[in-house]
Amino acid sequence: MAVTLKQIADAAGVSRGTVDRVINKRGHVRPEVEKRILQIAKDLHYRPNPYGRALVKSTKTSKIGVICQFGETPFMKLVVEGIEQARKEITARGSEVIIKTIDSYDTDRTLTAIDRMLSDGVEGLALTAGPAPELQEKLREVIKSGIPVITFNTDSKESGRLSYVGLENYRAGTVCAGLMGSALRDGGLILPISGYLENYAHSRRMLGFRETIAMQFPSITLLPAELCHDTDAVAEEIVHRALRLNPDIKGIYISGNGQHGVCEALRAEGLAGKICLIVYDLTERNKNELRNGTIDFLIDQNAFEQGYRPAMLLYNLLILGQPPEKEFYFTDIHIMNRFCL
Amino acid sequence: MAVTLKQIADAAGVSRGTVDRVINKRGHVRPEVEKRILQIAKDLHYRPNPYGRALVKSTKTSKIGVICQFGETPFMKLVVEGIEQARKEITARGSEVIIKTIDSYDTDRTLTAIDRMLSDGVEGLALTAGPAPELQEKLREVIKSGIPVITFNTDSKESGRLSYVGLENYRAGTVCAGLMGSALRDGGLILPISGYLENYAHSRRMLGFRETIAMQFPSITLLPAELCHDTDAVAEEIVHRALRLNPDIKGIYISGNGQHGVCEALRAEGLAGKICLIVYDLTERNKNELRNGTIDFLIDQNAFEQGYRPAMLLYNLLILGQPPEKEFYFTDIHIMNRFCL
DNA sequence: TTGAAAGCGATACCAC
DNA sequence: GTGGTATCGCTTTCAA
User: Fold this and answer.
1) How many of the other CB atoms lie within 10 Å of CB of B241?
2) With b meaning 16 or more CB within 10 Å and e meaning fewer, what string describes A142-181?
3) pLDDT digits (tens, 9 = 90+) for B184-216
4) SS3 breakdown of chain B: % helix, strand, coil, rounded to 5?
5) How many CA atoms lie within 13 A of B165 on its CB side?
């Protein structure tokens, strides 16, 4: 049998209440008693039984808010599945999760959503953030008012949020550079495509890619990065135009959405499978393109986890009183080729 | 607040005991009462509080046995860390974990270890299995005697084990074939190296690799697979010899241990970074070789999880009464290049 | 500063 | 078949 509070209490000749106060640093205990109890706890290798604690705490109820920008993208739909799963579990434990998705990157609507959540009385907030100064400022306020904030998918480090759950985007970019490097051993010309400049996550991926190619793969030449606004049609057009100007393009890297447009263009040009294409996100469409060989490598960033984890971290904090263990919950940079499916 | 047994009991006009009997299918309840209770539970969306259940159950104590073959390999040392972590947590909850590592693949010593564990009174067993008929037969007996068995790292499907935790080895081989294919776009000659024929995990990886290369990458030629007995010195010698016979080797795939020997040989031949090398397992040494460019791709199979999960699955089953959710707990086939470090 | 007691939700066991 | 009750380990509250 594991050591319990009561055993420590008996050994120390005090009551469980006193031991509890010591173990949980609630104060109001004579220092010498405290010292004795701590010593005994240590000697006995006391570890609180998480089930006992959770049982008591789980009767509290809280409201947790989750705001999800870029809600229209296929990837974010997968994230939302994770959030829904967390909601299910949390609801079953008596608390509440409010979800608000916002199309595209929209700071104003995000600010409005935050205000709405606050007036709804949420006690914890998770959101896809970003570098917009108004948003960061707002989050600092929220946090100062005592509401813990967790960012996911897109961080906002200066806001003072508790933790970030998501890809280490810059590094993911470097990994893709490495993949491109090994696929193009003899070097060649690469077309990099980004979504929006404002999408911090996508920009970081692009930066990591460009810097690594430049520094580590001298035989590879980068065209200037193009912006496709996360849109297939625009991405398709970009590829066609680029190929017209540079028929010898050997690789394409797209850090945001619009992947399908790129695939269509490559097919139309008869270059599917010939040009090395590296994309992000394991959506159904991307799966198919990976399978048929149009996409060579795909970085999966565990969408489900990005939705599930933040809500659970807030639940554990608010209800069970367990703060997150880490500031960064980086999801695996999961490289996939078609045989991974 | 979440729905509790008591609320259902009140609504149904019975006692909690009766509801408990219904919910947990313990019988001894009049069918009509049972039906009514189930209906109410459903209407109220009743979900048992796992903490309450765990609290009661966690006072039981059990002995869990873990047997680890190939215990001398760097990879298995990482697995053992996972087991140790599980042991720590399980011990803190009052149960016991006995660990036995066995060097190399040794069916006899494994059988002996199983017998020792049984006479020690373990109530659940996790082990690295394998296809040896005596072992499978033994495991069938063990299972028949009511002791649940879980395999990890190396499966033994015919033994009737409850679950397997580890890599999907055949598929991992196909993934490596894909990596080799994209690194060697123009084809070339490949040297495949295996450890022991008897190591089922390694053989499956080799089979997946060979079959996929043969079927999907016609421009790549495979040399006959060599066996290095998981030994660096042998692997080194194999590489030297192979290069003497075939100086135009473009890639090496090693499905087991001996990775470091391959790296040394490539360095000695001045071919480090020139020949595409794909290996398994994120050991410290392999990390270095990945970093310095001698290894191109590495498949990490989450050693920690392979040790941690099996013990925890047994704990959840024996103590909390929760059977594993799946038969296969496949660890991610985690492709890494040097930028992943 | 400390102790005693109630209660969290589920289970096990013993009466009836 | 069914109800009542003690119990698991911990937190909380109130009185001393």
Assistant:
1) 13
2) bbeeebbbbbbbbbbeebebbbbbbbbbbbbbbbbbbbbb
3) 999 999 999 999 888 889 999 999 999 999 999
4) 50, 15, 35
5) 26
Paired tokens of B35: 């039906």
Cβ distance of A337 and B179 shorter than 8 Å: yes
Average pLDDT, integer, range A281-288: 96
Going from the N-terminus, what domains does chain B have, and what CATH number goes with each?
60-166+303-331 (3.40.50.2300), 169-300 (3.40.50.2300)
**Which of B128, B146, B68, B139 has its CA nearest to residue B102?**
B68
Q: What is the mean pLDDT of chain A?
A: 95
- pLDDT score recorded for residue A255: 97
B143 within 8 A of B307, measured Cβ to Cβ: no
By a Cβ cutoff of 8 Å, what residues of chain A touch chain B?
A: 1-2, 45, 47, 49, 51-52, 54-55, 58-59, 61, 92-94, 171, 174-175, 177-179, 182-183, 185, 212, 276, 296-297, 332-340
Picking from A304, A184, A176, the residue whose alpha carbon sits closest to that of residue A248 is A184
pLDDT digits (tens, 9 = 90+) for B229-284: 999 999 999 999 999 999 999 999 999 999 999 999 999 999 999 999 999 999 99
